[in-house]
TrEMBL record:
Protein name: AraC family transcriptional regulator
UniProt keyword DNA-binding, yes or no: yes
Entry-linked Gene3D superfamilies: Homeodomain-like
Presence of the UniProt keyword Lipoprotein in the record: no
GO molecular function, one term: DNA-binding transcription factor activity
Record domain HTH araC/xylS-type: where: 1-36
Top-level taxon: Bacteria
Organism: Paenibacillus hemerocallicola
Classification via PROSITE patterns: HTH_ARAC_FAMILY_2 (PS01124)
Keywords for the protein's UniProt record, in alphabetical order: DNA-binding, Transcription, Transcription regulation
């Protein structure tokens, strides 16, 4: 599933903003997290 779709499903309209918030909270990008 694309990161943009995940962002929409959790309530973010802007995938770039979701990526920034995720990265700041988790310490890695959503893609890096998904890839393990």
């Amino acid at each position: 599933m694309p990161i943009a779709e995940i962002a929409r499903q959790v309530g973010y309209e802007d995938a770039l903003y979701f990526t920034r918030v995720f990265s700041k909270s988790i310490g890695m990008t959503p893609r890096a997290f998904r890839n393990g």
